Amino acid sequence: MKIVDFLKSDEIFLDVSETSKKELLEKIAAIAAPKTGIETSLIFDALVERERLGTTGIGRGVAIPHARLAHLDELFCTFVRVQPAVDFEAIDGDPVDLVFVLLVPEESGADHLKALARISKLLRNEEVCQKLRRAKTSEDALKVIKTADTED
């Protein structure tokens, strides 16, 4: 499973300007709702509930919010670059500017874990993160992801 199997250029949003974690999660829910057919409030609530279990801010300016949703038919992923970075209560305390969001069907099994692992591996590469921070367009960002995701 490659990230480009479930992430398309129209699901990449650069320089979103929300100023808090809550606002950012609301924006993400609003982005995902029309693409998934799930109500914005249900997506937001699921993301917030997951954050209550522990932050999905994994450090070095990166977060991977994710949630399981009833009535979701297939895995949904979006990438959001935040400008300026926001406090996401990340494990290292650094603000977050690179956010991959993963929404999966409630009964999703190994695919959910494989997708999280692929994204996590990609974002542990500092060079990839820097290229994503410099991408001018969503197509540029997708090209960075596609290139890095095929190098293993």
Would you identify the regions where 5 or more consecutive residues have pLDDT less than 50?
A: none
Query: Distance between the terminal alpha carbons, to the nearest Å?
Result: 12 Å
Q: Beta fraction of the residues?
A: 15-25%
The CATH homologous superfamily name equals Mannitol-specific EII, Chain A
At CATH level 3, the topology is Mannitol-specific EII, Chain A
What integer value in Å does the Rg equal?
A: 14 Å
Walkthrough of the structure:
- α1 packs across α2.
- The chain has helices at 21-36, 40-53, 110-123, 126-134, 138-149, and strands at 12-16, 57-59, 62-63, 66-69, 76-86, 96-105.
- The model has no long low-confidence stretch (mean pLDDT 93).
- By secondary structure, the chain is α/β, with parallel strands linked by helices.
- The radius of gyration is 14 Å and the shape is globular.
- Strands 1, 2, 3, 4, 5 and 6 form a six-stranded mixed beta sheet that branches.
- β2 and β3 (62-63) form a beta hairpin.
- It has a single domain, classed as Mannitol-specific EII, Chain A (3-Layer(aba) Sandwich), CATH 3.40.930.10.
- The protein contains five helices and six strands, in the order βααβββββααα.
- It is 43% helix and 23% strand.
